[in-house]
Amino acid sequence: MENFENYFNTNKETWNKKVAIHAQSEMYDIVSFKSGKSSLMPYELKALGDFKGKSLLHLQCHFGQDTLSWQRMGAQCVGVDLSDEGIKLAKKLNNELQLDAEFVCCNVLDTSEYVKDKFDIVFTSYGTIGWLPDLKPWAKMISERLKTGGIFYIVEFHPILWMFDYIDGKPKLKYHYSQDEVIYEEYRGTYANQSSKMVSKEYGWNHGLSEVVNALIEAGLQIDYLNEYDESPYDVFPDLIKTESGMYKMKDQLFPMIFEIKAIKKSL
């Protein structure tokens, strides 16, 4: 069996380095965020509708902007992330903005060991499941943390995008759609600051849509919907074109860029 701990530790080191760079980046725009701008995108706001007064667990929250955006809009939030530096900055922002969200530093797969409450909503978004070797324990943890009738919502980059290697700036078809073997990449910069001199060392895994859906169903969740969209809210892939709506698309769009799943925890 592969030693996933080594992979997770390498990823944690990389994400710890990313935090300071991302906090200064135009993409995360922390100044506007502090002055009241929400970091949430239209898909997640539409999907979760009336969330005011509800408890929300945010998985893989980075340094907490989305968690704090939900909190600021009336949810009671707990954010979880692997990165010590991410959680440290999230707590600092929470205090600075005089909010009362909670933040926990742990591997997302170990969430149930650190967070015992059950939630109305479990939420995760954009660039999360690719860090996990197996989605079954992830889905089991989500089910454990949801109240009966609670909602799980994920909006994520489409698995087709991860079939390409982007290291040289030109997408090159390289990986299987649902590849079991770990993928290692080493490159300069980050998606939020490509000119940064930091070296990103990352281990990841590709998961096809059927794997995501079946893991959730097996864990006792009922799929409400699965949607795919030909656009990304972030300019993080080569040669994207900004649309009138503020989203980003490829010049010759042949496949979706994101998907969303909403699921409900069934009664026993």
Structure commentary:
The structure is a single chain. This protein is of the alpha/beta class and 268 residues long. It has one domain: Vaccinia Virus protein VP39 (Rossmann fold). The chain has eight helices and 13 strands. The strands form four sheets. It has a seven-stranded mixed sheet with strand order 3-2-1-4-5-13-10, sandwiched between helices. A two-stranded antiparallel sheet has the order 6-7. Strands 8-9 form a two-stranded antiparallel sheet.
Care to give the gist of this entry?
By secondary structure, the protein is of the alpha/beta class. The protein has helices at 4-23, 30-34, 42-48, 65-72, 84-96, 111-114, 135-145, 209-218; strands spanning 55-59, 76-81, 102-105, 119-125, 146-157, 164-165, 172-173, 183-188, 199-204, 221-229, 241-242, 248-249, 258-265. It has a seven-stranded mixed β-sheet, with helices on both faces.
